[in-house]
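This section describes the prediction task in plain terms. A model, or a person checking by hand, is given the sequence of a single protein chain and must write out its three-dimensional structure as a string of tokens. No templates, partner chains or ligands are provided. The sample shown here is typical of the held-out split.
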Amino acid sequence: MKRKRLTFTTKMIIIISAIILSASILLSMVLFWYSRRELRANIEARMLDVTNAAAALLNGDELKTLEADDKGNPEYERVYHILGTFQQSIELSYIYAVRDMGDGTFTFTIDPDPEDPAYFGQPIEITDALIVAGKGTPAVDQKPSVDEWGKFYSAYSPVFDSEGNVAGIVGVDFSAEWYDRQMKKNLYVVVIVGAMSLILGSLVGLVIANHIRRQFNDLVDDVGNMAEDLHNLTTEAKSRVKQETSVLVKEDKPKPQIVEADKPGDDLDKVRNSIHSMHEELKEYLSFVQKQAYLDTMTGLKNKTAYLETVGRLEQSMAEGTARFAVIVFDINGLKKVNDNFGHEQGDRMIISAARVIKKAFGKDCVYRIGGDEFIAVVNSASDMSVRDAFYKMDGYIAEENKTEPPLAGKLAISRGVSFYTSVEDKNYNSVFKRADNRMYHDKVEYYKTHAEESNAE
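The expected answer:
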């Protein structure tokens, strides 16, 4: 009995089916690997950005001398405030200061977590990244660690004293739960697409040649669905940020639409574009989180964390002999009276109005809200004439604000004081600031001399 030989068309169908099956499995694995690598790389970079920024703001000479009994002292409170600002402003689980005990162990120094902080001297679980940071190099753990507070990916950056020695370590923890959920979803997509590819590949091998195009288009549709699922991962991540914070994020981009094309390469390009789009959205999400660390959400101005970084840069430029700047201190007059008589909601409205005025006069890039109704502008390459011109504009903007409807609960008035840096008179930034602050205070005194009825309000 003769064995039935396969026709050329049948052989081609089998070969094409095998190629399609292999390609779909390989593509699924590549997509999963790529999304996992990019997600992990972005998280690691973000964590190191936070630890490096926090470590740069700490004074190593003060940090290494802190003891449990120092709680309440200025040095202790400065460290606590800086770490607490990061804890409140950035999307992370925990931030804390750690000390190398010199015997192979590490202990907590300060933990600003308001709910369940580690106590001073409490041992911390030792990881590879912590050991590397103890030797002077920032590092991120490649594997999550588990302790009494949960499961986290951690990063550490050293804090150096004035002699260049490691005085302490700043650590941050990022919840591993979100990352694991994304990986499980990616794996689920890969399994589903792989199973569907297997079924479709088997069917293609049983049909005639004129059905090959239809079967291939079905496969492309499935790959398109996978790209859409990847897009939904970033949409869900951004939605989570929107739910957990009071800051609005940008509107989600439309879901990618997969359109049939005559050439297979066109559909594959769509898949690649979808992957690239996901990568960009992840970067946008992480960039958004980073910006929140330096933003005062009430006024839209830069916050105290951004101000402290600017002060650090100015100190460096002063040491190098290249500094040329002016410091302007602002304070709202009569705000306490508005809060007491009309409520803090009206007081906040006045703060927002003042921020708008200062921003319009000096530009948002150089103005900081450092607390309450206190604002500071640090203007590079400023001249007496340019500052006077800005003050003139500001007075005009104040007049406009006082005409707004509905009217403010009190008349908006802002005391101000300016000081220009001079290398002869100023040895540090604080010298310039104090001079501007004193002039602002005298301006406030003069204001209340002519507004006696408000003189007891502040």
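For orientation: The two ends are 109 Å apart (CA to CA).
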